[in-house]
Amino acid sequence: MKNIKVLGSGCANCKATLKLIDEAAKESGTDIVLEKVEDIAEIMSYGVMSTPGVVIDGNVVHAGGVPDRKTVASWL
């Protein structure tokens, strides 16, 4: 099971990224724990300066802008 965090303040891109990851996981049948992180200090602790950021199992895999569906599928 993958632990995925979407880092961001709650902007439209952050919400879209969260929804995209959730949908892709359901489509692929992948079990994930999906968490939305809005705490600025926690976001900064990952070194993410532009949101949305995506962290999978403790590793930053994306920062800034909504990732495309193919990229999200490759993470899963």
Helix-strand layout with pairing:
Layout: E1 2-7, H1 12-28, E2 32-37, H2 40-45, E3 53-56, E4 59-63, H3 69-75
Parallel strand pairs: 1-2
Antiparallel strand pairs: 1-3, 3-4
Task: Give a description of the structure.
This protein has a single domain, classed as Glutaredoxin, CATH 3.40.30. The model has no long low-confidence stretch (mean pLDDT 95). Helices cover 39% and strands 28% of the residues. Strands 2-1-3-4 form a four-stranded mixed sheet. With 76 residues, it is an alpha+beta fold. It contains three helices and four strands; from the N terminus they run βαβαββα.
Number of separate domains: 1
- Helix content percent band: 25-40%
Strand content: 25-35%
Order of helices and strands: EHEHEEH
Most strands sheet: 4 strands, mixed
Strand order of the largest sheet: 2-1-3-4
Shape type:
globular
Report, as a whole number of angstroms, the end-to-end distance: 10 Å
Contiguous helical run count:
3
Low-confidence stretches: none
CATH topology: Glutaredoxin
CATH superfamily: Glutaredoxin
Q: Structural class per helix/strand content?
A: alpha+beta
CATH class: Alpha Beta
> How much is the radius of gyration in Å?
11 Å
CATH architecture: 3-Layer(aba) Sandwich
Q: What is the residue-mean pLDDT, rounded to a whole number?
A: 95
- Tally the beta strands: 4
Features:
alpha+beta; 4-stranded mixed beta sheet; single chain; Glutaredoxin; 76 residues
Summarize the structure.
This protein is an alpha+beta fold. It has helices at 12-28, 40-45, 69-75, and strands spanning 2-7, 32-37, 53-56, 59-63. The model has no long low-confidence stretch (mean pLDDT 95).
